[in-house]
Design brief:
CATH superfamily of the largest domain: HesB-like domain
CATH topology of the largest domain: Hypothetical Protein Aq_1857, Chain: A
Number of domains: 2
Radius of gyration: 20 Å
Shape: elongated
Strand order of the largest sheet: 3-2-5-4
Oligomer: single chain
Largest sheet: 4 strands, mixed
Order of helices and strands: EHEEEEHEEHEEHE
Strand content: 25-35%
Structural class: alpha/beta
Number of helices: 4
CATH class of the largest domain: Mainly Beta
CATH architecture of the largest domain: Sandwich
């Protein structure tokens, strides 16, 4: 038994017809999903961008139970607070397929104008150059002039990462955003494909 009940009132979170169709197809393909509903939640990640989880689950106390066509969707109250007005679609293109959330609510960090400027610089001017070498850069946090980033792809475990970080990313951010004091790398380089940090040595 559960104490979860449909929450009265209007909750503006919508699944497209394609998303509803795919949820029904996935449920039919996986016997373990029998009798369960789709749960959508905001899960761990950087403060600069939401990461979403999708799973079949039983309702918990405090969940919102949202009717979407022929299915019901579970959303915990915390996630629902940051997903108001969102539209969930299922997209299939050359890059692959999956659920995509169009969320009009900026993540908490993006309410800071300096953090937002840093994020835009990373997305528009830094990431394309890093991506051309097989790497990626993600803003994790911004606190008191310090920018915390995570590097992925070819940057994770690369012996030139310090050069990329200090002479590339940090230099540009300091030049364009006077509030930036330093850029700190939060990446676990020991787990990269070519780790140059090696425990025990």
């Amino acid at each position: 038994m559960t104490d979860a009940q449909p929450i009265p009132g209007s909750h503006d979170l919508t699944l497209t017809e394609k998303a509803i169709q795919k949820v029904s197809e996935f449920a039919a393909m996986h016997p373990e999903a029998g009798g369960k509903q789709l749960r959508i939640c905001i899960q761990g990640g950087s403060k600069a961008a939401y990461e979403y989880g999708f799973t079949f689950d039983d309702p918990n106390a405090g969940d919102a139970i949202l009717a979407q066509g022929a299915i019901e969707v579970l959303v915990d109250r915390f996630s629902l607070m940051y997903m108001d007005g969102s539209v969930v679609d299922f997209v299939e293109d050359l890059r692959g397929s999956g659920f995509v959330v169009d969320n009009p609510n900026p993540p908490p960090l993006m309410q800071d104008p300096v953090a937002r400027q840093v994020h835009e610089l990373i997305e528009q001017r830094i990431s394309p150059g890093v991506a051309s070498h097989g790497g990626s850069v993600q803003l994790i946090d911004y606190v008191d002039g310090r920018v915390y980033v995570q590097l992925g792809g070819g940057c994770q475990g690369c012996g030139m990462v310090d050069v990329t970080l200090k002479q590339g990313i940090e230099a540009l951010l300091k030049q364009e955003v006077p509030e930036v004091i330093e850029v700190l790398d939060t990446t676990d380089h020991a787990s990269g494909s070519n780790p140059y940090y090696s425990s025990g040595k």
